Amino acid sequence: MSFIVRRGLSTLIPPKVASPSGIGAAQDAVRMQRVVSFYEKLPRGPAPEVKAKGLIGRYQARYFGKNPSAAPIAHVILAMLALGYANDYYFHLRHHKNNAH
């Protein structure tokens, strides 16, 4: 087993709760009890699913979440068309609304 693999696995494994030298000592017993009580209070199982908040968060959860789709590409194309037409209308087409060139 390479060093990198062992290093990666060492972050997943919790630190040793008891050591052979610290089992018999009274001062270490109190410390060990604090460590054990800390680990007992940690939540078990998978983390709860985080609910998306806000407009952008809901959009990302819907289109980029568990079932990603190509709809955002269509949304970008439609938004560019709409903004382009609005730009053309404001700077050019509104002057030709009632009379031609």
Brief summary of the model shown:
This protein has 101 residues and is mainly alpha-helical. The chain has 4 helices and no strands.
Provide mean pLDDT, rounded. 79
Tell how many strands the DSSP assignment holds: 0
Distance between the termini: 79 Å
Q: Could you say which overall geometry the principal axes of the C-alpha atoms support?
A: rod-shaped
Order of helices and strands: HHHH
How many alpha or pi helices? 4
Major sheet: none
Task: Return residue spans where pLDDT drops below 50 for at least 5 consecutive residues.
Answer: none
| Percent helix range | 40-55%
Structural class: mainly alpha
What is the gyration radius calculated from CA atoms?
31 Å
Beta-strand residue percentage: under 5%
Report on the architecture of this protein.
The structure is a single chain. The chain has 101 residues and is mainly α. Helix content is 54%, strand content 0%. The chain is built from four helices and no strands. It has helices spanning 3-10, 26-41, 54-63, 71-91. The longest helix is centred in the C-terminal third of the chain and has 21 residues, at 71-91. The chain is rod-shaped. The termini are far apart.
Secondary structure elements and pairings:
Elements: H1 3-10, H2 26-41, H3 54-63, H4 71-91
Defining key terms:
101 residues; mainly alpha; 4 helices
